[in-house]
Specification:
Elements: H1 2-18, H2 24-44
Helix pairs in contact: 1-2
Pfam family, one: DUF5670
Keywords: Membrane, Transmembrane, Transmembrane helix
Transmembrane segments: 26-43
Length: 48
Amino acid sequence: MLFTIAAILIALWLLGFVVFKVSGALIHLLLIIAVVVGLIQLFHGRRM
């Protein structure tokens, strides 16, 4: 699930570099948030 979200955000981030210069900052912010959430989940482990 998280991998899918990260892949979508990376694709949008690359699209922002090429097509949308204005929304690039928002996509960068979302990508940073996804990386931070992924690292937190990695260090804390999955709890179900």
